[in-house]
Amino acid sequence: MTMTKYELRKRTGEVKEGIRPCGVEQVVGQWGRAWQVDWFSLIMVLLLLAFAPFMVFYFVMACDQYSCELSGPVWDLYSNSNTLHNIWKRAPSFSWNAAKIYALWFASQVFAYVALPDICHKFIPGYVGGIQEGARTPSGAINHYHINGLQAWLIMHALWVLNAVYLQWFSPSIIFDHWGSLLWCMNITGYVVSIFAFIKAYLFPTNPTDCKFTGNPFYDFMMGIEFNPRIGQHFDFKLFFNGRPGIVAWTLINLSFAAKQRELYGHITNSMLLVNILQGIYVLDYFWNETWYLKTIDVCHDHFGWYLGWGDCVWLPYMYTLQGLYLVYHPVQLSPAVVLASLTLGLAGYYIFRTANHQKDLFRRTNGKCFIWGRPPKSMNCSYMSGDGKRHESKLLLSGFWGLARHFNYTGDLLGSLSYCLACGAGHLLPYFYIIYMTILLLHRCIRDEHRCAWKYGSAWQDYTQAVPYRLLPGIF
Question: In which pathway does it act (predicted)?
């Protein structure tokens, strides 16, 4: 059996399990976002700023005008069967009705986040809500967060069901009926938020020592300058915009698509039910574990810029719900075998995703004094420096799923993403964009995360990668 370099060094006594100190050669406070921008990164930033909004528009327009056939617009233009002017004329435009709907939705989310103290943690066993402590920032600060996402999700969905069954103030298909016009409203909101965050970082940053200026305005605008921009003590931009209004809306959007399918065809297909169930589990998991989310890469490493501001307002609600949108235009009735296979794959992916994250969270909360897969966990002791010059101790987990691969939670996430796509059959490429995008996103996150960890932990990170040599798939990658 081939041993890794780490195992060989440990056997010879050069490295002792659990007490490997971190190298001290890392630069103090530089384990967050990049300080300098190379030409490749700048080109990618400019391409994303230019083409990401266009891509969202293209997908919505392709469904609206070409029944979700992604090649339809390109072929029409190539064969002179249509013109850009005609496509643009037929595309949904801004409407004040959509603006009112979105303004009411956005205001309700701000109210639920700011004005309603969490009570769910008081009567739901196992749920952690209320004011919670986040991870240490690169400057050494520790922020506190108002965790009440589950409460907001429950309230909004209870109101939705109440309206659909009893009140009937609006049609359950209201989101689909204004989907194109709402895109304008969400884009406006995303850009306003991103521009405000950019200006705020210069004029009145929440924590100046956690700001990073590269000197390139395009990169700073996209990737963000402030680490945790806030208004007041607890209104945190990253936590609010990632979860509310984006993820709370995710399941409501899917419900609206299901309602439109029933309105058009007289029934809801099993594929639409499957997408609603699998994605509903994912969304509920996020809010149930919102406190755990404070330890993830989004909060612990990313600064708040266009990437998160516009992405949470536009990309997430539009590109993460493509399966439900597709099934409105192409209702698919799956065979029982395909339903079972897709459901099994989705649940298996969720199990891996949740169990891996739970193992790391348990390890952190107990400082390693726990059992993972029935045994005490193996780990490496490391240290790092924050921007205030203080040294802090940390541990890297080597057991459970984290002993199989360094990002095995992403593997589960990808399996779940694939199950959503498979639920749509094999008729078109559009619903499979999600698994393509998630693969690129999570691979990029692996690289970004490991780059930061190399800065943060120094030579100990090299020993960790030797102990756990695979990123996503044991024995393969």
Answer: Steroid biosynthesis; cholesterol biosynthesis
